[in-house]
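> @MW can you paste both from yesterday?
MW: sure, first one:
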Amino acid sequence: QLQASGGGLVQAGGSLRLSCAASGAIFSGNTVGWYRQAPGKQRDLVAVIANGGSTNYADSVKGRFTISRDNVKNMVYLQMNSLKAEDSAAYYCYSASVWGQGTLVTVSS
């Protein structure tokens, strides 16, 4: 199971840190991704991190978001800075064919 948390309401320009906790060994050796889905839109990849720590980001969040992982704690994080209204969405973590339940981020302009 994956459990995402950390969403909330924030003003534009603010920051949030999302967390994804894994039970068992879901993250072990696997790439982990954060995705987001705004109402009426498709679910898009935001950031991914490989087991070795290499990362990749959607162009829209480069320079503002940082994905990281703690393989000992089975946690993956998404630090989101300089948030914009268009970042508002439900954010999901994903690994090894397992989706977390989503955490809602709302950015007020």
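MW: second:
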Amino acid sequence: QVQLVESGGGLAQPGGSLRLSCVNSILTFRHYSMGWYRQAPGKERELVARITIPRATYYTDSVKGRFKISRDDAKNLLYLQMNSLKPEDTAAYYCNINPAMEPYWGQGTQVTVSS
């Protein structure tokens, strides 16, 4: 299956944490920069975090200091540790290579931050 599969979303309280995972059995992650993206209702999908092959990282300003992207190339896994969650983090979260390619978009995993 070409589409990446995300998991780990759910309902969290403000200030809480969630850890997202992304896996794919065909795409060899170690060959690509990987990214986490999110799309909130009524908004365009945006890049949240990126990790390059040498593991250099980038974060959009709104998540700096709260989110951490990591990768386990031996297991073909991508992670997003999300701490100090805020209601504005509510969105569907997706992983993809970076820059993103259409065939790899999966179903995403929903993150809802609410008290």
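> thanks! The longest strand covers residues 91-97.
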